[in-house]
Design brief:
The protein is mainly alpha-helical and about 120 residues long. Helices cover about 60% and strands about 5% of the residues. The protein is built from six helices and two strands. A hairpin with a 6-residue loop joins strand 1 and strand 2. The N terminus is likely disordered.
């Protein structure tokens, strides 16, 4: 297992397989480490409870999985697909943008999401 302060759920997420080549475990591990470290460093301080942080981390992974499959997806479509409220989706998107893991390219209507993945 990877040594990190990030929750264990970060390394079990199916999004990792869809981003990295599933035949290349090193690439998957690198992405998991980068995501976990960046997310924890930049977002962890916003949470008082570890359980809330884990829930947000898992939700962000699920959200990124949908964005990876369809970069043009809207926040409303994400909310419907993930069975979350629009407000929760907006919060998760803000966490990912603030952590520099996700970036919006173009306008709200007609733009797309870019997964940065390297935290930079």
């Amino acid at each position: 297992m990877i040594e990190s302060d990030a929750p264990e759920s970060v390394y079990r997420n199916p999004f990792l397989v869809s981003v990295a080549n599933p035949m290349n475990a090193a690439a998957t591990t690198t992405f998991a480490q980068t995501f976990a470290q960046t997310f924890a460093q930049k977002i962890r301080s916003r949470f008082k409870q570890e359980s809330s942080f884990k829930k947000a981390c898992d939700g962000c992974f699920r959200l990124m999985e949908f964005v990876n499959q369809n970069p043009n997806i809207s926040s409303g479509e994400l909310a419907e697909s993930l069975n979350l409220s629009r407000r929760t989706v907006a919060t998760y998107l803000k966490y990912l943008v603030d952590a520099e893991l996700l970036k919006r390219i173009g306008p709200d209507n007609g733009g797309y999401w870019e997964i940065l993945g390297n935290g930079k």
